[in-house]
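Researcher: Going back to the complex we discussed earlier. I've cleaned up the inputs and rechecked each line, so this should be the final set. Can you rerun the prediction on the complete assembly and write out the structure?
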Amino acid sequence: MLTVYLIRYFSIKLINFLAKKRGGKKSLTLSKHLAKHLGVGNATGLGMAPFLVNHQELIHQWIYNREIALSRVFSIKRLDKKTQNKIVNYIHQAFKYSLQWKVDDQLQSNKIDELSSDLKKILQNKELTNLLSFDYPIKTLFDFYKDNITLETQEILNSVFIEPFPELFEDLINDMGAKEQKSVLIGFNVNDILNIIKDNYKWALEIDTTKPAENYCFWYTSQTKLEPRLGITKKDAGIDKQLPFDIAHQIKKTLNILNKLPYDMTASEVMVNQPELRNIIQRIIINKSLPYSEIQNNLIGKDMKPIDILRCKLSFFGASKFDPKSDLWTRITLFQGAPLPNELWKTNVNDWLFPNLPNV
Amino acid sequence: MISVSLNEVYSETYKALRSVNIEWSLAKDCANKSKWLAKHGQYFLGSILKTADLYKNNKISISINKNTNKKPLATALLGLLLVEYVSANKITWEGYIDNSKFLLAAMGIIAEEQKINLILENEQKDIIAFTKDKEIYVNANLDTKISSYYFLKTYDFIKKKDIKFTNLKKNKNVTKLNAQCWQKLKSMAFETYVPESETSKSGAGY
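Model: Rerun complete. Updated structure for the full complex:
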């Protein structure tokens, strides 16, 4: 990410350098405001999707810390006037940002329009400042609106809520990594595994894995680019080399097998007798203590959109202006609005949430 | 010799084993053990290629309960499963193994991660290795390459013997491997890749 930040600055310097070379004394330098509004673009394809499946502990840690951050701001009992105004200003900024967020994809374009509409309604509500004067003001504000706003708006508001309180999350910043376990934890038996499946994998049990629509595609690694790709079952070759991302299917198969075994048989003994269950049993045991470690969707189903997986991962890198080009890849922007290197010593330097260009 | 990162060791190993239809989890276990051996400065690559070959020709066992001198247990594949099984069920396992090196890696991994105390003895009841306080200690005098009959169990107390044990410590993040063997492994891994379909290309950033 530091490299990306430096490439951004280099690009700004390059623009100014080339302008001077071409125009000499008549040239102008890019204004500071325009320079800061330049972000670094990135195109992201399917390569990132298996990362979230393969690194359970890490993904749990990211999502868990996000939830902790939100629970901390929701637990704030009172806000002073200055912070209340800050939050309202951030919502203003988010609204202007949404008006400048333009994409070609019709579905996403509609979502952005709904976002703009939601934020406008919130800002026009005369009770907005009043809500922030209540006890537990952020939770009060969120609860007031949550059933009447889209998911896109909810997530924008979550960013707004976290932004004024960086001091609350210093410990979380240094806790975004995870140690990944290579061995399967011992101490579990068949009954334990069955209970975890029933408690944590309801989402998988509700999927009818016999339907063709739930077996629509398969993941594989491509020969040409050594990257993950999606093939269509019964149409594309390579299903014999598919990656084991049919988690819901594996859960159901495991449940059926375990239901026929003695309840006190150790999980290790199950795996000794049936090594093909080891992969999923390990996932299940990890999920017991790390409940955010699974993507709760059928990753080989027709309705699955890999773009949602990509966006989740990219959001943790600070990516913005999500611009899907299809269900399989997207463009995003990094560091748009970020301070330039010669500004990093200033106070309030981190105040660049939802940057927007004036007079646009 | 060629320099290779530990992450490459992991990814190419498990793919190479998948190319001979070794079960996903066993392939990944083997890749983790290989990475552990590389990290601790131990050779592993030749054994991986040999394991794949023996597996293809049905000359090694992947059954913890069924193994013989002529068809020993493939510890490169079953090592982690075995140490977990012994630890979970608190039993003494005995049998023929092909190569104790991977079993030592498995013992090392489970000791680091789950603080399990295990002891490995040969047929003469000499201690080959034991784990204690997240570390593994290996008998410096014995040859680990010979296929033989072993005993593996958890322990509470080790009788003190006048044996020199080497503590295998981490010392590498990049490892140097035989270029030809590495190339062979990579070519096996390549067999797990699939030519892209036109459908999958469209909208994937092309």
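Model: Worth noting: Chain A is about 50% helix and 5% strand.
Researcher: Good, that matches what I expected from the previous run.
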